[in-house]
Batch of 4 targets.
Target 1
Amino acid sequence: MKRIAVMTSGGDAPGMNAAIRAATLIGRAAGADIVGIERGYRGLLEDAFVPLGAQDVAGILREGGTILGSARCKEFHQRDVRDRAREILARREIDGLIVIGGNGSLTGAMRLADASEVGSGRPLKIAGIPASIDNDLGLTGLSIGVDTAMNTIVEACDKIADTATAHDRTFIVEVMGRDCGYLAMTSAIAVGADLALFPEAGKPESEIVDQIVDTVIAVRTRQQKRARRVIIIKAEGVQMQIDRLKVAVDARLRERQPEAEPSAIETRVTVLGHVVRGGRPSAFDRLLGSRLANVAVRALLAGVSHRMASWMPPVELPEEVGMRSPADPYCWLVDLSAVLVETENLLKGRSPLARWRAGAFDQIEDALLL
């Protein structure tokens, strides 16, 4: 393993730079030449390679985003495009490729190293590092960026709660989570929200509106005045658009409480959007990125391929799917194809973990109203 390339792909996540830094330092210490690929698969097709040395990554640990950049590349689904990418990697004499990213990024890595497509060409070993603030990848307890994103949501909601309490307001706060409501579920618990809306629940629009209205009315009947503010966390993956949701909720509240003060029946909306993605990574995400990169690089150096470095998988793994990393007692090396299968099951609500997440939150919803 003489030359290893590192790329970040898909949505950026705080902690990606920590992974780039660790991969560079550990790989070079082992005698490998480390290069970066700018702008993900798009940059690979444009031959955008840059050398990575100790000085290049010296100050990036505390920075959010990714110094290598990222971009979408839909045409990578085409076989001839992947053939061109393999030709570039071969010309650059790349022996191993580390892909830091989410579901689509790791799928691209699998296709790039597909034996049926590579044929007699230069062999390529691949390793994945999970990075997704949505925490929507299978067979890893956490992905890079999740902890920072949750801290950002909690800080924002704490500030919103101050003004909500002062005016007895109802706030609907939308957070990221297109296909996975993990951030909405966990941040709702962390901020003491009154309700969480997430796509895994699969509730129709009418039920969502009724659930919010019932929650608001229940909170308004509390004896303690300071406890009458309402905070509702909504994942962006919940199909009902937030503006339309606000209109429907306000109208239903006016129907059920026609004598109420305007402030009691008019909701406020805050969309955190890409604020959740940004910011300096938390200490945990810096450590997580560094540890996963350490495991991924050492796996490639040992000749292991088609694996993803994983942080404490939430399910028991058979030997053929995953093994505990000898480089870190909390990290595993899991089969990349199994990761992609489990990710699809997770996003479709078919996996035991997805069912547990939704069921566990259903069980504590009543407790949030106490």
Note: The domain at 3-145+281-349 is CATH 3.40.50.450 (Rossmann fold).
Target 2
Amino acid sequence: MALSLQQRGSVFLVAVVCLLVVGICAPFSGHDLQRAMQISIGLCAVLYGLSVTRAAQLVDRPTALGLALIIGLGLVSSALAHQPLWAFTEVALFVSGGAIAVAFAWLRRHGGEPLDRALIMVVVLLCLIKSIQYVYAGALAFTSAERTLDPDLLLAGFSNKRFYGQFQTFTLPLLALPLLIPTLSRSLKGAVFALLCGWWLIAIGGGTRGTWLGMGAAGVVLAALGPWGRRWLGWQLAAVLGGLLLYWLVFTVLADCLGIQILNGASDRLTTSLSGRGPIWWQAWHMLVERPWLGFGPMHFADIANKIAAHPHQAILQWASEWGVPSALCVAVLAWRGGWATFGLLRGRALCAERADLMRLCLFAALVGALVQSMVDGVIVMPNSQVWLALVVGWLMALHVWRTPVTAELPLAWGAWKALSVLAVGLLVVIAARDVPHITQAQQQYLGSQGGLLQPRFWAQGVIAR
């Protein structure tokens, strides 16, 4: 018996939640497992999208044309790249992210407001599990015989603490949503606020300055979005103070009482240093100057080996150096149009207290925070961050209120997008099937020959230079 579209949406949601829990919360999780999680979610999204036979408008015509231009330029750049297969793989990741965003948009449109509650419950669940893991690791560290403690070692489930920080940039804004709902009981609000304080404790202890920068920028933007935006900011500031108090009690007072020395404390991160980003920014700049029109090819920053990273930790420089300046300008224009349209909608409905409006507010804060962090970090590179970026964008598309009546998509365009999505995810599955059985061996060979650390890009060993 064939499942209805709503039932398929439920299956898609359950599959995504299970994959997120494993990819984020499993103690053995890391970059490679999260990349496999992303590919699996992309596959589920494509299968769900194939079941949508009649599609209503999700984006306007200029946006659709802009996306087609970006993909077209990416394909031409890939064909001319030094390693076309890896370049096409990066384009496939972009298309897969679009498929995930479209699937979440359709899921929210068909599911309605109950899906907003489901999303927040998932966020609360993930943050609660990670907080429990952090507290458990801290308890083991404080009760051990060691006289030194590095808070970075308490962060589990991510290959790098900056990747953990990126996840927090997406979830800190959403975690404040229950605190904005007037009808929620005080006891539930108290529990959520305690979790938010604990989540900020981890963000402070992790020392990811990109997260602090992104959340600061989101706070400034939301302060201009009326009383609900300022209320969101008030809750976040209160939670920051709570997190600072917890950090001081645990890593200063308790540590001093037990005679434990704290290494890599949060105060050590209060610097203006670029943490090695200068050389890789210059590399990206020289790449875009040398090939401004089509770039070196998607993913091809990783084709020029350096001792720091396989991506420049700066979204604009990365896109311009790899895809070309015209493609980067097109991406920037589309991001600005979408962000400005959402900003205008939020300003126009600043006094509304409907749950959909509050949800839109928190999603916009997460998007602003992530985009600002992408100026100094690899938000558009890491698999978990790419999934959450697609989720936030898709949910915002579903919640958008159009000024003109929504029209049906052209059947030819919708069919072409489905075919492209299938090809993109199919390529990612082929790459995963080819590489996963040999990942450990390849990493050991790289470490043995280079004697350094892994540089994540597609896989944890992301350098594709031969």
Note: The chain has a mean pLDDT of 92.
Target 3
Amino acid sequence: MALRAYELSLLLTSWPSVTGTADEARLPQHLADALSHFDKAWIAAIPGDHAGRSNVFALKRGRSQRTVVLTGHFDTVPFDDYGDLAELALKPEQLTAALLAKLASGTHPLARADLESGDYLPGRGLLDMKAGLAAGIAAMEHYDGALSLLFLGVSDEEERSAGARAAIPQLRAAAAEHGLEIALIINLDSISDQGDGSKGRVVTYGSIGKQLLCAHVVGKQTHAGYPQDGVNAAYLMAELVRAIELAPELSEATGDEIAALPATLFAKDGKQGYNVTTPAHAFAYWNTMQHRRSGAEVLNVAETLAAKAVAAAEARTGHKIRLTRFAELGLKAQITDPSLSLPDQTALAMTALAQQADINAPTVLLGFASIPYPAVLLRDEKLRNLISAAIRPHGLGEVNYFAGISDMSFYGEASGDLSVVADNTPIWGTGFTMPDSGGWPCINIGPWGRDYHTWLERLHAPYAFETLPKVLLSVIAAIEKSG
């Protein structure tokens, strides 16, 4: 089984699949062909996808309707960061030798030591997350019990999760067509661990949530020689950034698991070119992470922080500034360029809709700029205890939340409703659509390694090829016995 996981990992990694490219759109056919030895393998197109992408299913029919789904994404980030080694980025064995030569000067000592040990294998997408898919397929091939197993490979996790969002109705349709009862979904995504691997060798019973909080600022333009005659949109946005950046009020803790503090991912005024007129408007968005909070709660906290920023700006400028939520405009955007990122679509929409609403006084509009990723958590204690007992002999730890954003947010048991998020997202229903929450029991067990999304991305090979498939089989066996 270890050899098979290794061979499959190299095969999957050799297929380029950068998000949004023609390669990503072509990979499902390669994967479906590779899975054709199962009882049924098929491709399911993502409706209306601008890049023509699909998801891939493969069914191994058991004697029982009860089914474990093994899932993960096959898209990757680009590999131009490898520079002169880019042609080797998808060839892990050759890349190892090339990287060792490049690191011989003493730079990146941990990466060099890892590669010299023989326990780590580099390559774009190998860690994130084709080795996880390979382990799932290898375990599926080896399994000879009563359960049915369903493999699901999805597109576009790295950008918009179009694959996972489309997979919810596709999974329901597959279950209905084939008479399957989904007992557990195992996401196979990777975990980064810069230490001894103890934080990577874990099962996670849920996944952290994310809301991309945003603000559109309308200022009052003035000549720079008379700055107090107006309100500089760039300055007002700076006060918002200062209030929200790293604000502990927007973080959460569960035991010793702490959600990341909010971070500004983009902040820019709307000026084009040079003149001495102050900016009329500005736009920014922030990454915020949740364990239990709903979007409504996130917006409430953000509004409190924004009110402090507005008060500071009013005191400095002497002008009254309105603070409101996007929903109060009562408008929605019509998207004309789906190739733009969702935050870029939101920025354009906010500007156009503020003009449509005839906002001509200094104003801060709060809302959301992208797809919400609800926090999810497996709450069934009996099921958690079964999984815990299954993984314990393999030396795995247990945590509540997968620390990175993952497709589990769509499959699992979500916290809170999304109505407030929908009302305050300008491009909801036009730039993207959201499925109903899957609501299935969902966990993550995947490979671990270091530095993914960089040219030093590397997989801890013994765990991925030897341990991980065995862990998956043990969990599947526990689910079988529980029925």
Note: Residues 32 and 54 are 11 Å apart (CA to CA).
Target 4
Amino acid sequence: MIQIPEVKIIKVIKLEAGSKGLVVRGTNAGQIGNIETVDEGTFILPKKVILTLGERKIEIPAELIMPIGKGEPVIQLQ
């Protein structure tokens, strides 16, 4: 999170287990879920996230997830 117009960093929201995540692309775009695990990638395989969306769990590349807060979302979308 940044403060504008000063461009001052207020808070850093990390991509980690226990955070809320917003899917930014793909068939689940716009959905918010709980991040269960973050699996580090390898040289060939990308970093993956296990995300709970309602009653289902999906495995999705980490580049498609934007962390939006712990517990309650800090970032609001309208």
Note: Residues 1 and 12 are 6 Å apart (CA to CA).
